[in-house]
Amino acid sequence: MKTNSEPEKRTYWVTKYALTEGIHEVTGYVKSNTRGLPMLVADWPGAPNGWALFQGEDWHDSLGKARERTVRMAERKIIALQRLLSKMQQIALDSTRAPIKIVVCEQETE
């Protein structure tokens, strides 16, 4: 029998790793962090203690919201990769702009 101090667990969706592992469906409960903001305490089998904390936009109470967040994450990642590709193409076309770092390694003599 549940006591009043035990929070009610239900299903939530975690998008923190959505671009690398996909959306995780987890069981957990919501509580306030030290700043009074909601955070998810979720059962997480891979964690040393068996649970994990998720804050901000890393968790959602519906699959639809999780999917929307994942789309926004993917769009932002694509823009960042396009910027990086543009920089790399400029470097490849103009060898005088190539970043060069010379590191001198000295062997210790005894």
Distance between the termini: 72 Å
Class inferred from helices and paired strands: alpha+beta
Bin the helical content. Answer: 25-40%
Instruction: Give the biggest beta sheet.
Output: 5 strands, antiparallel
Low-confidence stretches: none
Widest sheet: strand order?
4-3-2-1-5
Structure overview:
This protein has 110 residues and is α+β, with helices and mostly antiparallel strands. It has one domain. The protein contains one helix and five strands; from the N terminus they run βββββα. The protein has one helix at 63-93, and strands at residues 10-14, 24-32, 38-43, 51-55, 59-60. A five-stranded antiparallel sheet has the order 4-3-2-1-5.
Write the layout of secondary structure elements.
Blueprint: E1 10-14, E2 24-32, E3 38-43, E4 51-55, E5 59-60, H1 63-93
Give me a quick take on this structure.
The chain has 110 residues and is an alpha+beta fold. Helix content is 28%, strand content 25%.
What tags apply to this protein structure?
110 residues; 28% helix
